[in-house]
Amino acid sequence: MDSVLILSALFLLLFCGIPVGLSLTAVGTLLFLFKGIPLAGIPEDFLGSFNSFILLAVPIFLLTSNILLRAGVAKDLFDAVQRWVGSIRGGVAVSTILSCGIFAAISGSSVAVAAMIGTVAIPEMTRRGYDQRFVMGTLAAGATLGILIPPSIPLIVYASVTEQSTASMFLAGVGPGLLLIAAFVAYCVVKSFLGGAPVTETGDETEQRKSLLRVSLKAFPTMLIAITMIGGIYAGIFTPTESAAVGLIMTLVYVFTFRDSFGFAELRGAVFQSGATTANLLLIIGGANVFGKAILLYRIPFEISTWITDNIASAGVFILVVVLLLVVLGLFLEGIAMILIVLPVLLPALGVHGIDPVWFGIFFVLMIELALITPPVGMNLFVIQSVAKSDLSEVIYGVIPYAVIMMAMVALIYAFPMIVLYIPFFG
Fold this sequence. Notes:
Blueprint: H1 2-15, H2 20-34, H3 42-48, H4 57-71, H5 74-85, H6 91-107, H7 110-127, H8 132-143, H9 153-162, H10 166-172, H11 174-196, H12 205-208, H13 212-234, H14 240-258, H15 264-297, H16 300-311, H17 315-330, H18 335-352, H19 357-372, H20 379-388, H21 392-415, H22 418-426
Helix pairs in contact: 1-2, 2-15, 3-15, 4-7, 4-14, 4-15, 5-6, 5-13, 6-7, 6-8, 6-11, 6-13, 7-8, 7-20, 8-11, 8-20, 8-21, 9-18, 9-19, 10-22, 11-21, 13-14, 15-18, 16-18, 17-19, 18-19, 19-21
């Protein structure tokens, strides 16, 4: 009964529009108060959750992505990828997915990927005569790769909560990330031949005359940053936090040396925007820490874990229940909040069913990806709608096939867990 009342109070505040971090802090504080525990320790619990070397990577990744966004590197990257694959039917759609995947290896943020690639790809696909729903869906879904392909901010938060190796979590995302890119590309090709793309694409002839070497060289710095960050982690040269710092330094050198459009005014804007996003994220993390300690006093994780053990006999049924839970929560909560609210409750049950926490992290992030394109609060839907100045229903209809592909990927990694676990543990 305590569990139901506490969760009901939390979701009531969320549905009233109170920010997630404040809702978590308020409910946690009330729970301490009802137990008669002094409230003097709450500020220490709140601020103590930020004292993490792992979380230091989050603002650095955000700053890197914001700098690249303001420097306008998306067009160089998109042009290069398009020149490589543009000869096939639906080549611009394929280029969009591949560009999203490449930029995801730098930013760690799905919203940043959507904003950056969307500003370039949407006008190009529209000008060439692509189906509007196909355009919107491809951008919204492709941008979700930003939180699966390492580096990933949700994976950093997951690693912090579960005390897993961030490097292992990043490497675990490589296999499913590449497989999801391949699945999205395959759908783009099939959809293009079914009428989603024109038979003969007619783009800007000036752009068509650009040499492959020229556009590839312009995109090379962005590719080099991505390869250095991921390759350094895989080779054990530096930690994920150090990888973020290396990527930021390389980005600053690149934009100030080779991008005339980027100056200190743009850098100041990138710093302010990254700071605001980081502050919002840390508010959620701090509130979740207070809430998490409070529910431990009421033995809620233990009670739910016991109920799962007594009533759910197999790992498959447990995963199915979690899928349904996350689909529902994804309608109302953003990804980090889902991790911080749900994970402490589910974590004790993983050992009972023999579920690897690294595998579960990738599964969880795939479900968060689905939440990003699920109305009414799917962030990617609104970013793409804003960039394209389109009707929201067009974006929603466009992402439905990609949502089906994501659910199929969840089933696939459940049937073949080595897709997730091979690289971090055996690669």
